[in-house]
Amino acid sequence: MSDTETLAHLLAEAPSNWGRWGADDEIGALNYLTGAEVKSGLAAVRQHRTFTLGVPVATPAGDHVFPGRWPARHYMVADKAGFEAGHWHPMPGGLEFADDYVSGFAQAGTHCDALGHMWFDDTLWNGYPAASTNGGMTRAGIEPIAARGVVGRSVLIDMARFRGKPALARAETFDHRDLLECARAQGVEIQPRSILLVRTGWVGALRSGAETIGDGYWEPGLTFSLDLVRWFDEMQIPCLVTDSLANETTYEPRTGMMLVLHAALMRNLGVVFTEMAWLDDLAADCAADRQYDGFYCASPTRVSKGTGGSVNPVFIK
Ligand code: UVW
């Protein structure tokens, strides 16, 4: 790999937020979400309808996961059959119970990534050494993000509907100019510090069986340019939520590098990524009433030293 083929070279001119919120910061662009953003989120609630944005996990058919991961698994530990077989006994008074055990990747299903989840040049978000991931995240893990929560005004950008498709095609790309054009067509403004929801239709296509993940890394999504990274920086976007596995085209087509926005937005700007969200029901409702903004509220599972956490965000219109 020559120097010109590295992320460090590609992002040399790109903005960085390291140090902006102090040497100990672990929540990055969530610092933009102050009381004022909570207030403007609440002001966007006009219809009092709620939507949850998490996909089911540990489904009998097997969840959709990024290549190299495997679906979450669900085991019943106690159930009626266990009581009938004598493995369990009713409590004094007669109460019986069901208990279960779920195991899976922190990045399975709808999930939030910790800022230290990906790195290059041996350095994580805010300059922490990559060795802080050894044996569990002692820096920039999911816990501080879960402790803070992601709360504010949010805007849904429905790229799939804007392009007249149930889902974007394999490897179809778009950038911030497309987001702005789509917002204009939807009659909504992406304001500074908006929590950005972008629908590609991909999770819907996976769930219906119309699409597969395969090994081709052919997901549609946002794709890297310096201008796009600068736009995220200028707009102070705290959190990017999409209905794809990686929130971006896995391969950046121009350079052939992988997951460039994980480097440019997550590692360098501290933008919190939430992936594999279920946006189809919300999008259908927004298309019907033309209200594309609302109040977003989410917090991932507070996994100690975790690299990410499962989340079921709530959007209130
Ligand atoms: C990848 O995109 C590979 O990982 P994550 O979904 O956790 O960001």
UniProtKB/TrEMBL annotation:
Domain of life per record: Bacteria
Listed GO biological process terms: L-tryptophan catabolic process to kynurenine
Membrane-spanning segments: none
SUPFAM superfamilies: Putative cyclase
Pfam families: Cyclase (PF04199)
Record GO terms (molecular function): arylformamidase activity
Name recorded for this polypeptide: Kynurenine formamidase
